[in-house]
Design brief:
The chain is 0% helix and 50% strand. By secondary structure, the protein is an all-beta fold. It has a single domain, classed as Exo-inulinase, domain 1 (Jelly Rolls, Sandwich), CATH 2.60.120.560. The strands form 2 sheets. Strands 1, 3, 4, 7, 12, 13, 14 and 16 form an 8-stranded antiparallel β-sheet that branches. A hairpin with a 3-residue loop joins strand 12 and strand 13.
Length: 215
């Protein structure tokens, strides 16, 4: 297994975690730093200061005060079948944009093409394709009981896993299959992988891993 980030979290809860003021107010924050070796591509041109990140044990905190963004290590790529996993805490907020994983295409270039496997604050999941500024819904938003909805007072954790097989692709949240579709429907993606942070979202990431299918 190759790990972009791997951190453990005792008890699986961020209850009581205090987010520093500079993580809440972009006027005080520094430019995008990111994890070592990572880069960020925002949806539209904007000051780097609108995308805030900081190492915050346990894990890494990122807040998109402006446009959404793709985050990842440009040396990492998906070549056919594989398993991608992430653990993400969603903090209270008003944004109903999606967050999760992107895979395939050239997601870390300007005007990127990418596939998103996304969760939303209302406990929904969807799969979307972005190409040349156009959005196509491969699987539209659908709610599932396995997905933890956003909480108005505390962070909630969802574990997202994409099992990309040669024929079928399964999407699991918190260990439960929430969606299954033909891999051909998402174009058998190859290329960059990483995190998707929707506009206005405040997230804490404790794990991102890529491993071979069936491992």
């Amino acid at each position: 297994m190759r790990a972009l980030m791997w951190m453990t979290l005792a008890g699986g809860c961020l209850s009581g975690l205090v987010v520093p003021a500079h993580a809440q107010d972009h006027r005080e924050q520094s430019a995008w730093k990111g994890a070592k070796g990572w880069r960020a591509v925002m949806d539209t041109p904007a000051p780097d200061s609108l995308l805030y990140s900081v190492d915050m044990p346990p894990g890494w905190h990122v807040t998109a005060h402006g446009p959404g963004a793709l985050l990842g290590d440009s040396t990492w790529s998906l070549d056919g079948a594989g398993v991608i996993e992430t653990d993400i805490f969603l903090f209270p907020g008003e944004s109903r944009e999606g967050y999760g994983l992107f895979l395939g295409g050239d997601g870390l270039r300007s005007s990127p093409h990418w596939i998103g496997v996304l969760l939303r604050r209302d406990a929904s999941v969807a799969v979307v394709s972005h190409r040349r500024g156009e959005t196509r819904w491969i699987a539209d938003w659908v709610r599932h009981d396995a997905i933890k909805p956003g909480d108005p007072t505390d962070a909630v954790k969802n574990s997202l896993r994409v099992d990309l097989g040669p024929v079928n692709t399964r999407i699991l949240v918190n260990g439960t299959v929430v969606m299954e579709l033909a891999t051909s429907a998402i174009g058998a993606p190859r290329g960059a992988i990483g995190l998707r942070v929707g506009p206005g979202l405040n997230l804490h990431v404790t794990k991102v891993t890529l491993s071979a299918a069936g491992s």
